[in-house]
Amino acid sequence: MQTRLVVSCPGKAILTGEHAAVYSKAVVAATVDLRLRVFSQPTCDKLLSLNFIELGYIFVVPISTLSCIYGAIESLSHPGDIELLVRKLASDGKVSLPKNAQLASAIFVAIYLYCSILASSACSGLSLSIKSDIPLGAGLGSSAAYSAAMSASLLFHSYKFDRNTPGTDINALVNSWAFRAEQVVHGTPSGVDNCTVINGGFVKYSKGLPIETFYSGIPLQFLIVDTLVPKNTKTMVAKVAVDYNSDKPGVKSAIETIDSISNSLYGILKQTIHLPSSGTHPQQIELNMCQDQIATLITKNQDQLEFLGVSHNSLDNIVRAAGGCGYSAKLTGGGGGGCALVFVPQTKSDPDSLDTLKSAIEAYGYRIYSTKMGVSGLEIDFDGSSWTDPL
Ligand SMILES: Nc1ncnc2c1ncn2[C@@H]1O[C@H](COP(=O)(O)OP(=O)(O)OP(=O)(O)O)[C@@H](O)[C@H]1O
Ligand SMILES: C[C@@](O)(CCO)CC(=O)[O-]
């Protein structure tokens, strides 16, 4: 029997370009240092067991019950249609589904991946436990991390790769399944979230083109602020699509403007400015200029997102509070709630203003994350037995 596997994947933050990404426009994103882990182990009980630790929910289904899905899964016109098959099982009394929509969608993803990837060896059992630091449904890529970590776990247990497979091959294989899993959760994702969390670092992405990884030559610091307002990326993407497809005035040009914002940001971040340790040098002036340009791009991007109708009062509060203290801010991810990014230039002359801003944000009851960006992507621990059991 194979040993226990532990797969971990970080969250992500979109610096510029969300929503435009869905229309194949440029998006700049980075991983954030919050991770989701999947602990998995084959079992002999012929059950698929999912233990959602934060959500306090255990879902168990006999593998034989899923047999009617194996045959049907290849003929689905969209991975999201797995929901219809699983709901049919529920209405026939063969499985019981939670009322919580996030849990239900996590179960649809797991069944979709299990039946697609492991169908041929479907007689064995598998137990998976999911534990995460990434706030769920907050714009920080929890669904991409879940989709990627679940895909990697199931691919490993179906012998599609092992510890000798080159990492780039593993990432490409996992990414292709994580994208399908994201389609189950989001309907029409661009693919930026799964690519970013698997690849790691800073990335520029345009749907259909190879992802570009880069290390920012400009020191970048952001405050990540979670409004704690629940949001749903699928709904927000669908809302923009209605306006886009009906040619609502200004929508297509807003998407084009966001594309050019991301291209400009990428151009700035790719520069390398080596700062001497002290004094005012031409490099310092150049860095100040770059940081001013970044701040302007962040504000412009937020203006376009507000125009597209994907901001929220809580996000607007952060943008206003940041502006009042001399900082620029924007929503990140799907919008409609969830998180905002506040850009904190390294060269900002008045450090007290950051404390004032943090107090203003906390007074709203929002949560501030101080986390690193650009951390490593998908990680697989093939000797997972060294981990303490998360249960
Ligand atoms: N810890 C977890 N346990 C179970 N399911 C999870 C977990 N984290 C994420 N998910 C899955 O991800 C979905 C959340 O996706 P959603 O797109 O709404 O938020 P997000 O990925 O955090 O935000 P964004 O897509 O804007 O970055 C949940 O509905 C669930 O299917
Ligand atoms: C809103 C969106 O652009 C980013 C969500 O993190 C959707 C996507 O690109 O799939």
UniProtKB/TrEMBL annotation:
It is found in: Cytoplasm. InterPro entries: GHMP_kinase_C_dom (IPR013750), GHMP_kinase_C_sf (IPR036554), GHMP_kinase_N_dom (IPR006204), GHMP_knse_ATP-bd_CS (IPR006203), Mev_gal_kin (IPR006205), Ribosomal_Su5_D2-typ_SF (IPR020568), Ribsml_uS5_D2-typ_fold_subgr (IPR014721). Pfam families: GHMP_kinases_C, GHMP_kinases_N. Residues 120-198 form the GHMP kinase N-terminal domain. Signal peptide: none annotated. Residues 292-365 form the GHMP kinase C-terminal domain. Mevalonate kinase; part of the second module of ergosterol biosynthesis pathway that includes the middle steps of the pathway. The second module is carried out in the vacuole and involves the formation of farnesyl diphosphate, which is also an important intermediate in the biosynthesis of ubiquinone, dolichol, heme and prenylated proteins. Belongs to the GHMP kinase family. Mevalonate kinase subfamily. This is Mevalonate kinase. It comes from Smittium simulii.
